[in-house]
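Give me structure tokens for this 218-residue protein.
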Amino acid sequence: MKKHLLVSLGAAILFVLGLAHVNASEKDPPSAEVLFNGRDLSGWIPMHGGEWSVEDGAIVGRNGVNWTTNPEKSGSWLRSVKEYSDFLFECEYTISKNGNSGIFLRSAIEKNPAFSGHELQIVDDFGRVPQVYTTGALYDVVAAAKNMSKPAGEWNQVKIMARGARIRIWLNGAPVVDYTSSRRTRGYLGLQNHDDATVVRFRHLRIRENLSAATSLP
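Here you go.
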């Protein structure tokens, strides 16, 4: 009798431990994929000219060309090899004095990526009143709740969570955008190389995909 009781008790303990393991696994966020190795542009494809290089562990964009606000035409940008749907993307950037750049989300290869998907606007505008064309905005769609950009030459931290139609953005630790989009929900990530007067740098690029409802901002 005691032997059977011990066996049953042991089986019950293993069952409970197994449930705990499954539940913990369901809540664990997906691991982050590094999108830039710090050495070269593996995993990225230059589009429509501009000059891209890797310096001191950062992707550097210079001499951008052909950018307009025409939704049908694209200027120079750097795109990811693969497309993404739901994700948490993180990176750091710095921009030169009077510089202009951006991060493209769920964009198409054809036409202007700022309009086929969305563009998180990046400009040198420390202290400026937020508009739909200032830092942290989804360009020409919704302004950031507040301007969290740092002065030119300083590193800024960006986090972007896209799940379904909802896009949320954090800049330097503060939530600045929470928007429900009517545009495409799958596409390429991209870095904008805007003009010949701008030098923009990106580093520590990483992404998490297949977000569950329990995934929260780390």
